[in-house]
Amino acid sequence: MDKPEIEFIEGPAPTQLQITDLVIGDGPECPVGATVDVHYLGVDFATGEEFDSSWSRGESINFPLPRLIAGWQEGIPGMKVGGRRQLVCPPELAYGTSGGHRLSGCTLVFVIDLLGVS
After folding, report:
1. What is the CATH number of the domain that holds 64?
2. Which domain holds residue 84?
3. Which residues in 72-84 are b (16+ Cβ under 10 Å) and which e?
4. Which of 2, 34, 94, 116 has a CA that sits 20 to 30 A from residue 83's CA?
């Protein structure tokens, strides 16, 4: 799959995690606590500005889900390899409502391609 484009979402930011399957994969299903290999794109809900993208770096990332933000820990399990899923993460499930991270207090939108699980 090519780098996704995220459509600007109208209206107020959601207060709970929103999960939308854009492409249903046909590979193994990701269990809770798995290590995932993903390509992803992240934008700020309020501005639509891209803040991070594995696509831009030209390589996927491989991480244990428990080391990722809560929105990913909740939003990726159940996804199948080969799928593409959009997650809209309120601050509580991203980088917190306040604090030292530059994205604290932000609702974030991610499009995630699940390339593998282990």
Report:
1. 3.10.50.40
2. 18-117
3. bbbbbbebbbbbb
4. 94
pLDDT digits (tens, 9 = 90+) for 54-95: 999 999 999 999 999 999 999 999 999 999 999 999 999 999
pLDDT digits (tens, 9 = 90+) for 6-54: 888 889 999 999 999 999 999 999 999 999 999 999 999 999 999 999 9
> What is the DSSP secondary-structure string of 30-62?
PPTT-EEEEEEEEEETTT--EEEEHHHHTS-EE
Tell me if 105 sits within 8 A of 91, measured CB to CB.
Answer: yes
Q: How many domains are contained in the chain?
A: 1
Q: What angle do CA 26, 27, 32 make, to 5 degrees?
A: 120
